[in-house]
Amino acid sequence: MSETGAVAPAVEPDSFPLGLIEVDADRRVVAANPEAGAVLRIAPEELVGRALGDLVAVGEGAAPPEWARDWHPSAALRSVRRIPEHPVTLRCGDGGEVEATVAGQYRRSGDGRLQGALLVIRPTHRRGFNPPSGIEVISTVSHELRSPLTSVKGYTSLLLNRWERLKEEQKRMMLEQVHHDADRVTRLVNELLDISRLETGRLVLRRQLVDVGEIATRVVSKLALEYPDLDCTVELPEGFPAVYADPDKVEQVLTNLVENAAKYASPRDVHITGEVDGDDVAVAVHDRGEGIPASDLVRIFTKFFRRDHGKPTGSGLGLWISRGLVEAHGGRLTAESEPGHGSVFRFTLPLDAFDALLEHERPRGEAS
Ligand code: ADP
């Protein structure tokens, strides 16, 4: 199993298609795979022993990441495991520089002590997924909008022109399709609005105490209309605590995860589980599909990324938005996958959000 932004231990580092660098607690390289050597134009064994900060270019215009000097302050928190993907300019063995993105995972001992990190390096302009240009985005979105609108136009024309001649069940089928396509258009437009709100920090959360089990049950019964084969159980433990969150956003995230399981994995044997994990609740959607290869797993949360695997695809926005919505709540959304066995998408929501609100609202001078 591997976490997105990190690397599946099951993967042979030598055959992994992205650069991998492992560093110890002192931030010195202890291992690097051939791809990391190829990106940095140096023999991988020559990287071993070098300080992580030395690999980063701190030139004009190149904003170094925080870890160029020391661990990011969040590394001190035992619950933080993921290093989110961020751009960086790296120094190459031949004196040149390369633009890349770095993501990763902290390595921790059983009691949570920081032991190092595993970093995944992807050159920005070589192989792999390059974010689409504005024109490509418009073309993707237009295409996504056009297909449901074409069917709405076609069916409504038929209904208007042949109303008297159509059988009841034909009319019903066409109206159902129009209804479904109108939902698709609404969803896509909402996704685009969410993108601009997330990117400009204008997303407003309408928080209340939310029963996640109730939302999960509603999501499953709504999706069962669209995916009649859906067999998804909700298994939250007794007394699962309510969380202070925006119910519409939690529903949106769960809908995306369960729908992805039905669409891209298998509608059979999907499970929604929940647990209290320290100061958070964690909700996970498990599927038993083909799984996602590690090389794609690190990219599925990228905006507009869609895997090319012959399955129906959408806009490539769902997971990016879901992660943004979860993070807006102060939680994390991660994915693990074992090719051949399925995937687990897991998000957390902080349990103390309501207490923090009470703290904030309490009039000055009032004792706690
Ligand atoms: P979309 O909005 O197009 O459905 P997402 O951002 O939700 O895209 O997902 C991105 C890609 O991740 C999809 O194209 C799909 O290939 C892959 N994916 C997402 N969830 C799963 C899953 N449970 N199993 C296999 N692949 C998945």
Q: Tell me, briefly, the overall form.
A: globular
The percent range for strand residues is 15-25%
Say which molecules are bound, naming each kind only once. Answer: adenosine-5'-diphosphate
Quick one: biggest sheet? 5 strands, antiparallel
Estimated helix fraction: 25-40%
Helical segment tally? 9
**Mean pLDDT metric:** 83
From the alpha carbons, calculate the radius of gyration and give it in angstroms. Answer: 23 Å
Query: Count the strands?
Result: 12
Q: Gist?
A:
With 368 residues, the protein is an alpha+beta fold. It is built from 9 helices and 12 strands.
Give a verbal description of the structure.
There is one protein chain. The protein is an alpha+beta fold and 368 residues long. The protein has 3 domains: 111 residues, PAS domain (Beta-Lactamase); 67 residues, Signal transduction histidine kinase, dimerisation/phosphotransfer (DHp) domain (Helix Hairpins, Orthogonal Bundle); 149 residues, Heat Shock Protein 90, CATH 3.30.565.10. 36% of the residues lie in helices and 22% in strands. It is built from 9 helices and 12 strands. Strands 2-1-5-4-3 form a 5-stranded antiparallel beta sheet. A 5-stranded mixed beta sheet has the order 7-9-10-12-11. Strands 6-8 form a two-stranded antiparallel sheet. Helix 5 packs across helix 6 and helix 6 runs antiparallel to helix 8. The N terminus and C terminus are likely disordered. Adenosine-5'-diphosphate binds next to helix 6 and helix 8.
Keywords:
368 residues; Beta-Lactamase; Heat Shock Protein 90; 3 domains; five-stranded antiparallel β-sheet; five-stranded mixed β-sheet; 9 helices; disordered N terminus; binds adenosine-5'-diphosphate
